[in-house]
Predict the structure.
Amino acid sequence: KQEVTQIPAALSVPEGENLVLNCSFTDSAIYNLQWFRQDPGKGLTSLLLIQSSQREQTSGRLNASLDKSSGRSTLYIAASQPGDSATYLCAGGGNTGTASKLTFGTGTRLQVTL
Amino acid sequence: NAGVTQTPKFQVLKTGQSMTLQCAQDMNHNSMYWYRQDPGMGLRLIYYSASEGTTDKGEVPNGYNVSRLNKREFSLRLESAAPSQTSVYFCASSPQVRREKLFFGSGTQLSVL
């Protein structure tokens, strides 16, 4: 059974800092890996989706990488801004499953301070 | 630009009461999902519908039923609510089941007393 872990649970950084959020998974036969953002009281917004055949995806100041052999994914946020403050979740899709079989981590709560 | 719409946003039930959570998407997506989010446990899949006319159990289906009413709408029913079903419920959709990003609604906060 796939297990997804995100450490740390919370992170506070000053504005302008580059930062890395970590996600680890136990089953390397992963189908894809998605990073989501969740604002308080809101739903999740998909940020980046990495297919198993890919190693990274980029969108603006965000870059996500996937290393299946080590069971790790990272989300890199460049030049952080207060508006980046949110909870970031990663989710892995099982190889024999579907997008519906996403296994979610519990998230990293990010606060970017002025 | 509605995306995925869930109703209601908040609900309080007494143990044993029933209710239906409604979800509709306007993106012509084939697949729809219901998740619950509990503190410290991440999101867990309750049921999903890969396409209109099909539904399948997810990780935590006990105590729930679903109906894919048409391509747009996917409802979640609690027949006899229990305190363990206190949670935040999210509906999501994707163009197809595999390989696609999920789009989430804003959630329903349910309390069962």
About this structure: Chain B has a mean pLDDT of 93. The two ends of chain B are 35 Å apart (CA to CA). Residues 32 and 93 of chain B are 4 Å apart (CA to CA).
